[in-house]
């Protein structure tokens, strides 16, 4: 269960000065474009994202996606899909958060992971003519599913609007991350980003029903384990079940419940009215308070209606058995044409404030006048370089292509944005003195022109994701440069006479064509050479003594690099051909993180001795076992062993107790030693575990896709959260204390047990206990004591 930890009151911490009209207009345009983009990408078939089914449970299908155009830092693409009963008017009404009370109720019903919330700007308020159209800027703090990692915060542009897509009416709520000076990262939190996210509701072919798609593409920032991000986002997309439940609840509250004398007497029915299952001592009878019929527990559910628990059969809950109040409808005369909309349609889709309309026309006229004067060679530079006191020029990838953002006016950092920049060169360009940051990515830059010079004030230079084949010696880098990136180009080497700036600390040369390590500046702290065909590294290679982070992922290495510096903290060696686990002398004692996923390691040593190691990632190797006398330093918190060939854990498992998390997915483990003290979080998907008995389970556990048939005499801490798949337990017994903890953890929370129990088998195995139900789940538990 995600428990939103408290953060300091947010609203008082944000100063929100009025936006410039031009900036406000730009945000409105971006919001509408973001919503249109979300609708297009929510298509499961024939859309820009390749979706594949991940799971199907409780009516929610969860898909994972591959988006070739997503930024490289987007670490997850998921969507949840569900058919629910309701109308677009009802769906849109759930997201009207215009008051503190509305926000409080929304968080309690649908977003328990939201720790804090602030509305910073309302750009396009709802109007009587367009009650479902809204654009604004929000700040959110979101609780992570593990207390071991910091919560995240987001600065988001939100857009809500009606649309039509291929003739189908719908309504959507989109989110995309933006940067605003008035919304800096919140102290104590990590600023994360949503590339594309939101809810899309389509009218279904079944009258009175909607298809709901909840899409999330995010960058959670920081070195979070993939399983943790995935678990958090799967719970988030699965929360659309709560929307369906709440809409049904509202409709059921609108119809009268029958009194006791109006119910069909229990004695007159021998079988369930809906499924015809015969009643017996093991199949209890229930009376539906809406239609009065007698049904079994599998064909009914307890609903909380106006503070009272009421039994309602599934037929009535879907509206098929009773006369429910009519669904609200509305005919919007001008929905957004999401399939074919262009910038002009977005601009005029909704009536904007008068000042906005004037600015819009001025902008359109300016664009038209500029187009008439364009020359074949990058005319935008003339306008950009005419701005006073420029401090930064950088490209930003958005859902609408690449934008050029220019900050000028010195310390004021006024922002000018130029959209859809696809190709730029530097011929004839003279960058101004005072420029500190220059980032030109994804603009098909092919060369640095002869005679070109960088301003001496430059501290950050990023030319990644272009088409450069070399860097000229005749264009020296400024001595004050601290960050330099040429990643994702086609560079093979540097000239022997090339000299590095004396203050350079971060160098990124990833994904080029280097076959050997270049001569490195002595001041480096971070170096990325990933994605280059290095194959081997000279044994005499001299690394900068100041180096703390080294990335050599996917460099075709079979042997570890030698002579690594004594201050190294982080080393990335994933996706190579390394077959032998590193020895104690291969890495310095300062090492904190070792990434060796997707290599060819077959065994582990008995003792791992780096005293400051915290994270060891060994996923996707060929490890078959863990030594019986295996030990780890007390500093290790995370051990990742997914997708190996491990069949069991050793009897001596004291080392497990020191960990905060271990992942063992996709192995062949069949059992645990009952004496093992497991870490706080463990992932065991896709193993062969058949029973969990006489042991202490962790707070967070994923045992999906295991043939588990028995859970007996286990203990677990408060706030337990299990991720499971659909298996049936023949035995399930707990102490009364553990039953109470499990009951509290599953009471209207994100913890939805997917497994069921064979009630007759559980009862037969329950010697001295009492069989109890777990809420309204199809789960019986033998409670002892």
- The CATH superfamily label of the domain at 25-68 and 78-224 reads START domain
In this structure, how is the largest beta sheet organized?
Answer: 17 strands, mixed
Question: Per DSSP, what share of the residues sits in E-state strands of 2 or more residues?
Answer: 25-35%
Shape: flat
* Helical content class: 10-25%
The CATH topology of the domain at 25-68 and 78-224? Alpha-D-Glucose-1,6-Bisphosphate, Chain A, domain 4
Label the CATH architecture of the domain at 25-68 and 78-224: 2-Layer Sandwich
Report the C-alpha radius of gyration, rounded. 30 Å
The counted number of beta strands is 39
What distance lies between the first and last C-alpha atoms, to the nearest angstrom?
26 Å
CATH class of the domain at 25-68 and 78-224 reads Alpha Beta
Oligomer: single chain
The overall pLDDT average reads 83
The structural class is: alpha/beta
* Uncertain parts: 1-12, 331-349, 351-377
How many H/I helices?
11
Domain FYVE-type: 272-316
Pfam family, one: LRR_6
Protein name: FYVE-type domain-containing protein
InterPro entries: Leu-rich_rpt (IPR001611), LRR_dom_sf (IPR032675), SLRP (IPR050333), START-like_dom_sf (IPR023393), START_lipid-bd_dom (IPR002913), Znf_FYVE (IPR000306), Znf_FYVE-rel (IPR017455), Znf_FYVE_PHD (IPR011011)
């Amino acid at each position: 269960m995600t428990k939103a930890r408290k953060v300091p009151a947010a609203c008082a911490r944000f100063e929100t000065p009025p936006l410039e009209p031009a900036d406000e207009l730009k945000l409105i345009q971006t919001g509408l474009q973001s919503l249109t983009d979300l609708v297009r990408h929510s298509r499961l078939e024939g859309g820009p994202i390749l979706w594949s089914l991940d799971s199907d449970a409780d009516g929610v299908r969860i898909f994972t996606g591959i988006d070739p155009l997503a930024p490289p830092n987007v670490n997850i693409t998921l969507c949840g899909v569900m058919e629910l009963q309701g109308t677009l008017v009802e769906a849109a009404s759930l997201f009207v958060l215009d008051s503190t009370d509305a926000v409080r109720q929304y968080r309690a019903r649908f977003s328990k992971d939201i720790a804090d919330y602030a509305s910073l700007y309302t750009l396009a308020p709802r109007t009587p003519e367009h009650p479902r159209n809204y654009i604004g800027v929000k700040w959110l703090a979101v609780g992570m599913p593990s207390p071991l990692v910091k919560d995240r915060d987001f600065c988001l542009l939100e857009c809500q609007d009606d649309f039509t897509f291929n003739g189908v009416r719908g309504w959507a709520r989109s989110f995309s991350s933006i940067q605003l000076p008035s919304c800096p990262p919140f102290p104590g939190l990590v600023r994360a980003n949503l590339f594309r996210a939101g809810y899309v509701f389509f009218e279904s072919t079944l009258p009175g029903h909607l298809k709901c798609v909840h899409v999330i593409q995010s960058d959670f920032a920081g070195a979070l384990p993939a399983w943790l991000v995935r678990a958090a986002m799967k719970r988030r997309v699965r929360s659309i079940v709560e929307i369906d439940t709440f809409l049904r609840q509202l409709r059921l509250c609108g119809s009268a419940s029958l009194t006791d004398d109006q119910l069909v007497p229990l004695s007159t029915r021998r079988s369930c009215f809906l499924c015809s299952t015969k009643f017996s001592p093991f199949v209890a009878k229930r009376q539906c308070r809406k239609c009065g019929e007698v049904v079994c527990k599998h064909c009914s559910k307890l609903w909380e209606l106006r503070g009272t628990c009421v039994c309602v059969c599934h037929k009535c809950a879907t509206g098929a058995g009773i006369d429910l109040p009519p669904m609200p409808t509305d005919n919007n005369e001008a929905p957004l044409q999401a399939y074919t909309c262009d910038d002009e349609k977005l601009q005029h889709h909704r009536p904007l404030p008068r000042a906005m309309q004037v600015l819009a026309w001025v902008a359109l006229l300016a664009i038209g006048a500029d187009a008439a004067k364009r020359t074949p060679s990058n005319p935008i530079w003339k306008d950009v370089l005419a701005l006073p006191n420029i401090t930064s020029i950088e490209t930003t990838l958005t859902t609408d292509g690449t934008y050029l953002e220019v900050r000028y006016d010195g310390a004021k950092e006024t922002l000018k944005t130029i959209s859809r920049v696809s190709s730029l060169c530097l011929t004839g360009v003279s960058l101004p003195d005072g420029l500190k940051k220059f980032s030109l990515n994804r603009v098909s830059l092919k060369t640095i022109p002869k005679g070109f010079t960088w301003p001496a004030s430059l501290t950050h230079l990023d030319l990644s994701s272009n088409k450069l084949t070399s860097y000229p010696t005749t264009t020296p880098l400024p001595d004050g440069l601290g960050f330099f990136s040429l990643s994702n180009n086609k560079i093979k080497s540097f000239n022997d006479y090339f000299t590095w700036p004396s203050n350079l600390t971060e160098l990124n040369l990833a994904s080029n064509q280097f076959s050997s390590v270049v001569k490195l500046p002595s001041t480096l702290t971070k170096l990325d050479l990933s994605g280059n065909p290095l194959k081997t590294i000279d044994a005499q290679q001299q690394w900068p003594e100041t180096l703390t982070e080294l990335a050599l992922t996917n460099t075709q290495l079979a042997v570890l690099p030698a002579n690594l510096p004594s201050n190294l903290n982080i080393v990335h060696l994933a996706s190579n051909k390394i077959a032998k686990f590193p020895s104690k002398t291969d890495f310095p004692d300062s090492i904190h993180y070792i990434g060796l996923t997707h290599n060819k390691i077959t065994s582990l040593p008995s003792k791992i001795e780096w005293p400051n190691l915290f994270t060891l990632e060994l996923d996707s190797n060929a490890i078959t076992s863990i030594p019986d006398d295996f030990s780890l330093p007390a500093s290790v918190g995370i051990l990742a062993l997914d997708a190996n060939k491990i069949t069991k854990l050793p009897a001596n498992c004291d080392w497990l107790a020191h960990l905060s998390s271990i992942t063992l997915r996709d192995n062949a483990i069949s059992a645990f030693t009952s004496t093992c003290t497991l870490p706080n979080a463990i992932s065991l998907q896709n193993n062969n575990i058949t029973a969990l008995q006489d042991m202490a389970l962790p707070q967070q556990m994923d045992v999906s896709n295991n043939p588990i048939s028995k859970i007996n005499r286990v203990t677990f801490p408060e706030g337990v959260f299990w991720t499971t798949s659909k298996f049936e337990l023949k035995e399930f017994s707990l102490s009364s204390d553990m039953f109470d903890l499990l009951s509290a953890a599953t009471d209207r929370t994100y913890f939805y047990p997917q497994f069921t129990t064979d009630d007759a088998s559980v009862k037969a195995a329950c010697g001295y206990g009492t069989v109890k139900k777990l809420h309204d789940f199809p789960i019986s538990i033998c409670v002892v004591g």
